[in-house]
Design goal:
14 helices; 471 residues; elongated; 12 strands; Alpha-Beta Plaits; alpha+beta; 5-stranded antiparallel β-sheet; SH3 type barrels; 52% helix; 3-stranded antiparallel β-sheet
Amino acid sequence: MSATAAATASVAPIAPTAPADLLTVPAAALPPLAPPAPPAPLLDFNLWLQALGQPGVWVELALLAGCVALALTLVWALRRGFKPDQYTSIWFGRSLINGVLFPALLLALAYGARAVLATQQDLVVFKVAIPVLLALAAIRLGVKVLQVAFKDAAWLRPIERTISWAAWLAVLLWLSGLLPLVLHELDQITWQLGGTTLSVRNLIEGTLSAAVVLIVALWVSAAIEARLLRKAVGEDLSLRKAGANALRALLMFVGLLVALSSVGIDLTALSVLGGAVGVGIGFGLQRLAANYVSGFVILTERSMRIGDMIRIDNFEGRVTDIKARFTVIRNLGGRESIVPNEMLLTNRVENLSLADHRVWQSTVVGVVYGSDVELVSRLLCEAALAQSRVLRDPPPVALLSAFAADGLEFTLGYWIADPENGPLGLRSMINRAILAGFLEHGVEIATPARVLPAVGAGAPVEAAQPPARRL
């Protein structure tokens, strides 16, 4: 046998093996699946202290301080350039750091500085500063939007505190490393709602998403309303107010739908809710719906505008604001009345300045019989024209209105163009001017005479009265 043959014979044949995908293992032999591992535990604060002792930390602190100074400078320059209204502006506030612009600029500058510095060294300070600045921007955005959208609301202060506490609590949990642990535990608390399984984590995340969507909708509507109402007066103001109210209602409706979708609620189920709301409007909510519809009717047909002087139910004042549900009327004494819009359509309303802002007023004075009528009329007109608020066109008119029992009664009528400033002060100034003119020209003011019956006598005796004073 040759060597080649011997070598060939010495090689043992290899048995064929089955492919790996054809191997079957009994299910009972497989180990049970382990539950998902929980997140990493709390971070070690000693590592943070060691990291803060590195020399590069001072570079980060100096860079962060430069970002703060640059953000303050930019906000100051923009504030001087635009001169915004601190009560209606979302970007600016009563101070440099009170608006949304400062934390937003500081956050953007910090992100840029972190991106540049991350290529040079390991970061420590910016890992803490970025979440803090993000929470500060979120707090200022939520608070300013609510302040502009719902001015002087009683529930606004508790909501602002809730937003602040929630944001700072989230930052504290993230920095301490507890946030993954808390979210993991909240995800384990579940319950069955129909065919959907909900957890506390899903509920919290959906609520936050809904809040963000509604805040953005309020922000956009407030910005559009401020732009529409800027420099608008008269009829244009009422029409733009109607458009702003309709746009806000539309944005809030769309935001509510998006918020419900983010929570996980099926919008097709709202058809039943819509039917229930329709029935509620037909029975219990019809007055509320009537007020809203009346508000849009008043604003669109412009039968009553902001700034008009009106009288309703013996209450007279100037229309200061027209809301979707009610109208605010401020009288000349400073009191405000909130009138439902339905009353303005169903009741009789006197609009004193619908076609003309001029208002006619009058004062009455009596003089003794025998006085010079022409002189009295001239003195009355001169007393009215001496006041700057009295219009020259049409001019004031003095009329002999009645032959009273005690003397001649004159009525002085005059027109003014600023009824919102009140009639009493002007009438007092005119009466004082009339009194001074009568004293100067010797005109006597009529004094009443009284006749009293004498007790035990057969005829009444005229009561003693002082003689008429000659002025």
